Amino acid sequence: MLYGAIEAGGTKFVCAIGNENLEIIEQVSFPTTTPIETMCLVKEFFDKYLDKLKSIGVGSFGPIDVNTTSETYGFITTTPKEKWRNYNFLDTLKSYFNVPIALTTDVNAAAYGEYVKGYEKKISNIVYFTIGTGIGGGGILNGELIEGFSHPEMGHMKVVPHPKDSYKGNCPFHGNCLEGMAAGPAIEKRNGVKGQDLSEEDSFWEIEAYYIAQCMYNTTLMLSPDVIVLGGGVMQQDHLVKKVRNQFKHMLKEYVQIPKINHYIVTPKLGQRSGIIGGLALAEKALYNARESIH
Amino acid sequence: MLYGAIEAGGTKFVCAIGNENLEIIEQVSFPTTTPIETMCLVKEFFDKYLDKLKSIGVGSFGPIDVNTTSETYGFITTTPKEKWRNYNFLDTLKSYFNVPIALTTDVNAAAYGEYVKGYEKKISNIVYFTIGTGIGGGGILNGELIEGFSHPEMGHMKVVPHPKDSYKGNCPFHGNCLEGMAAGPAIEKRNGVKGQDLSEEDSFWEIEAYYIAQCMYNTTLMLSPDVIVLGGGVMQQDHLVKKVRNQFKHMLKEYVQIPKINHYIVTPKLGQRSGIIGGLALAEKALYNARESIH
């Protein structure tokens, strides 16, 4: 019995096959080009496993329509990637593979991977942020994905500008929202170099940490999750998570009793595999749900 | 068969008895004084119904410990009301009444009331804010209360100061968080009169709406609930909800497709009874859970 997983990113697709322990058996990745070309490679990869493939879990770039009662359920909707706009992702997959398929956002999938495999379901409330070329957030509450009328767009929350920061933000929708102030491109715009080329001692990191800490603060007060996981390229600066923790504690003023800080604001247990393992975990869940609905 | 409900507020307690349709049969209220005095009146009220009382639901002022695995589960913890600090609320009630008892925050109870009775569970994601002498938020996601390591404290989220507002905020913890800028006392501090005595045309209301709209914006992007309910004394200014909706739309820039605005940001369907009816609904749930755990 095998599970399939797709991590559909704006720049690359990752496909994987995993076993019942959610361990990856084979994994491939290729650039995201046109839907026809890209989906053809997806089909080719999973076709090798068709006889044992039981279900597929997908974490996708977005925005996607996750509302099961909607006419465009399973579509990638208003993405700036023109060729993928209003693309019926889910039905295309269904036309290839006659197995249960679960679809959610890339960050929800990563959160689910951390929940199921990273934390082995020992806690049931996790929020996951990716801080990279954009900022996205997803989560699990009471063991279920956070999805209401749509999936969350936590990366666009409002933040208070840092007193020493004159940058106006580059979010095309909201200007100086969290993503507009703290994602990779905003770091590069201010400093002239990418974050990875800024020294650990650069004073800019305290400004960056200030914005991420506000996100941790709001997330804590809105959701009081058991853990907040910080992934994505920007967080690969090892020193950054400590700076975020310090500024977060300073903001919170011990107003609520959080879990121990080093176990509360953390980097992913699964490293860069949260999303793809989350896909396998979603596949497992899709199979379980499909069986339940038969009985 | 009767349900009991307690709305335990910082200034007054409301107790009610309701039937299986969650309709209130009798209701009393009295000022919150000392725990001994207040709880004595609680006991007296419900004692009349002991033979038919099946369960009790409580929405309490806080902070309270809602973590069932904690040693201080069911305690009112670090409240500024000294006599109630570290008060074992749940065990006191259990010593009086040998029935299942559910305890959560006042705002969670109100959210639950709107969910069960206001919306008859036709939607499963609701966030409820009370904007009064303080600001509190609670909610339901996938039909379950939002509770992680603790209950949310949404009223203390960060807000961006309005360009025309020089007020520094009065939250003893965070200064200019949402509560520090937009709760009743902050309105009075700026204007010299209470909100209810400010004319509808006063330009201050646009400043007030700006802060509440930020809360709506962050809540939308963090949780994408089906509806956000705005209760509490400040929201009794009928004109305010429209101003909030307008500013919210302006901030969101149609970044996500929300439900129709007049059905999305709303005042409570149950008026001022959301909390006490929520208590009855929590009692119903507590009874159901207790029966399930026997089978």
Give the topology.
The structure is a homodimer of 295-residue chains.
Chain A: E1 2-8, E2 12-18, E3 24-31, H1 35-47, E4 53-60, E5 75-76, E6 87-88, H2 89-96, E7 101-105, H3 106-118, E8 126-131, E9 135-141, E10 144-145, H4 178-182, H5 184-191, H6 204-223, E11 227-231, H7 240-252, H8 261-264, E12 265-266, H9 274-294
Parallel strand pairs in A: 1-4, 4-7, 8-11, 11-12
Antiparallel strand pairs in A: 1-2, 2-3, 5-6, 8-9, 9-10
Task: Please outline what is shown here.
The first copy, chain A, is an alpha/beta fold.
Proportion in helices of chain A: 25-40%
**Total DSSP helices of chain A:** 9
Order of helices and strands of chain A: EEEHEEEHEHEEEHHHEHHEH
What is the overall pLDDT average of chain A?
96
- Binned strand content of chain A: 15-25%
Structural class assignment of chain A:
alpha/beta
Rounded to the nearest angstrom, the radius of gyration of chain A is 19 Å
Low-confidence stretches of chain A: none
